[in-house]
Amino acid sequence: MGAAVRGLEARGLMGPRVRILDREAPLGYLLLVPLLLLLGLFLAYPFLFGIWLSVTNAQIGDNGHFVGAANYQYERSDTVFIQSFANTITYTAVTTVFKLGLGLLMALLLNQVFPAQRFVRAALLLPWIIPSVLSTLAWRWMFDPTFSVVNWVALHYLHLPSVNWLGTTSTALVSLMIVNTWRGIPFYGISFLAGLQTIPTELYEAARVDGATRFQQFRQITLPMLRPILVVVLLLSTILTFGDFTLPYVLTNCAPYNSTCVLSTWAFQIGVNGGYIGIGAAISLVLFPLLSIIVAGVLIGLRSRD
Amino acid sequence: MSAARLLRPFFLLVLTAFSLVPFWWMLIASLKAGDQQLTSGNPWWFDEVYWGGYRDLFAGSLFRTWMLNTVLVLVATVAISLVASCLAAYALAHLGVPHGRSLVLVLFATYLVPQGVLFLPLVRLLARLHLLNSPAALIVTYPGLVIPFGTWVLWSFFRSLPRDLVDLARLEGAGPVRTLTVVLLPMAAPALAAVGLFAVAVVFNDFLYAFTLIQSQQDTTLMGGVGLLSTDLGETGPTFAAVMLGIVPIALACAFFADRYAAGLGTGIIE
Fold first, then answer.
1. Does the N-terminal or the C-terminal CB of chain A have fewer CB atoms within 10 Å?
2. A116: how many CB neighbours lie within 10 A of its CB?
3. Which residues of chain B does A181 touch, with a Cβ-Cβ cutoff of 8 Å?
């Protein structure tokens, strides 16, 4: 770092520059332009357009016209929608608990010296940075009733009855949750590891001198120090799991009998396969106000505590 | 204490095995003829190694195109996201743009927008811009999913650097642009790696956009292509061969940046 500044010094005065690059505030706004352009055009605009679609009776090939809250009202009497809603909540809640717990365990295990460290770390991260269509496809074959490799193990080694994983309502939802947890643990693990590595070791030494047990150290030092990163990771992951499309679509696509639909896949079925764009948009948006309120609440609560 | 000493490697082993099991299965699947999977004895081992999947992968130009498009989209998304996030984060942290914290919060809130509501309007917009059905459709869309996170990580990182550093560079006569490129960016390498890794994960996790914004088999990525294929057994060979040859190396290369990721994420957020 020092070298860089000294390098600038050696070059002496850096000569005349374009005026705008000297004045900070205009330059600041200029540097925001790429972000605003990309997010405005490819996020904000489609979002607003999507909100508009959700209050029209648009269909594929037909712009439709304004129908007020009719799409949202229609959903209330749709049993598959209600099932999807419940599934989305269960799917998100259960997987979040497991990802949080196992991610924390992973971070604690990784935050120490052991042989083949880099390889193990890379291996543990792999599920998160492999295309999820492909890994989910692999899981689908692994769960397949006719030649399920999961059942093969149960049958040959554990002498358990075979399970039709994706064929029955309850096990299909469990399968979805297993795959989501499998994919999600590393993001938690690696982010928590980032947090753990910033905790000064002196804190633990001091606690040890005071005779604190390992569990006490974990409660009193590790968790509070992890809090900022924990909240952010938890929020981001919860939001993304709520809207997850890839995994439910590739693994079950609502089968059997629409019982494993989540909001995103049901919206796709209605909006694209059924052609009712307006209703599809309304289904996608139904959780948006609720999620926004929860997230705003958490963030405001955090700021007031700090 | 000794119990804990034994438990740690045990848990580590179990977690690693859980992570890697599907990859082992994909390797096996890539080395089996499609219908052999149905009949053969042990699904966790190859009875006879069948290279047809890999041969099809290299023979068919489709898979080659998909891999090339995947890499193109990946590199472009990472580059665009990094540049946009970096410039914005610098502006918000050090160039006196007011309400930096609120802006970062608003950016973060964009993750609340469900992708399911975006893709139909995007199809319309991209068609009008003549970008539909080409990798460019994904290259302009994916950064929107990375930039909010990227700006937030880099903003936290830039703010965690001592203010004196920026002032000193200024005193030495460096303008704002030089301060960024010569002084701040070299220090931000871990944070940049963290954002890059996140970008890779976002691109690889997407299916909805790849599936809906590119509908021709010739122009799509591996992710979209696999979705367009009927997922019958005959195709698992080349599909998982592509995973083994193309995707796992990319992912492993990224995973080796994991240390960087941890460092980059950690320094910024815990101020």
1. C
2. 10
3. none
- Residue B144: what residue type? G
Q: Calculate what percentage of chain A has a pLDDT beyond 90.
A: 24
Nearest in space to A240 (alpha carbons), one of B193, B82, B148, B89: B148
Q: What is the per-residue pLDDT across B102-140, written as a single tens digit (0 to 9) for each?
A: 888 888 888 888 888 888 889 889 988 999 889 999 999
Spatial distance between the Cα atoms of B260 and A300, rounded to a whole number of angstroms = 31
Domain count, chain B: 1
Report yes or no: B114 at the A interface, CB cutoff 8 Å.
yes
Token pair for residue B120? 């139909």
CB of B15 within 8 Å of a chain A CB? The answer is yes
Does B35 reside within a domain? no
Q: How far apart, in whole angstroms, are the C-alpha atoms of residue A303 and residue A286?
A: 27
In a domain, B3, yes or no: no
**Contact, A172 vs B244, CB < 8 A?**
no
Largest Cα–Cα separation, chain B? 75
Supply A142's token pair. Answer: 């692994």
Please give the backbone phi and psi of residue A59, each rounded to the nearest 5 degrees, phi first: -130, 170
Domains contained in chain A, CATH given:
70-305 (1.10.3720.10)
A185 neighbors A127 (Cβ within 8 angstroms) = yes
Q: Please write the tens of the pLDDT for every residue from B45-94.
A: 777 777 877 887 777 767 788 888 999 999 999 999 999 999 999 999 88
Q: Which domain holds residue B239?
A: 56-269
Asked whether the beta carbons of A268 and A249 are under 8 A apart, the reply is yes
CATH number of the domain that B98 lies in? 1.10.3720.10
Q: 3-state DSSP call for residue B33? A: coil
- Residues of chain A in contact with residue B169, where contact means CB-CB under 8 angstroms, are 5, 8
Q: What whole-number distance in Å separates Cα of residue A236 and Cα of residue B173?
A: 40
Tell me the two tokens of residue B233. 């057994």
Q: What is the largest CA-CA distance in chain A?
A: 80
Give the residues across from A59 on adjacent strands. Answer: A62
Token pair, residue A165, equals 């994983």
Alpha carbon of B37: minimum distance to chain A alpha carbons (Å): 8
Q: Residues with Cβ < 8 Å from B184, sequence gap 6 or more?
A: B90, B94, B158, B161, B165, B166
Structure tokens at A118: 């880099």
Q: Distance from CA of residue A127 to its chain's centroid? A: 14
Please indicate if any CB of chain A lies within 8 Å of the CB of B188. Answer: no
Its ipTM equals 0.86
Cβ burial, residue A210 (10 Å; 0-12/13-18/19+):
exposed
User: Nearest-CA neighbor of A142 among B15, B18, B16?
Assistant: B18
Partners of A56 in the β-ladder: A66
Count how many pairs of residues, chain A against chain B, have C-beta atoms within 8 Å: 320
**Environment class of residue A156 by beta-carbon count within 10 Å: exposed (0-12), middle (13-18) or buried (19+)?**
exposed
B41 in a structural domain: no
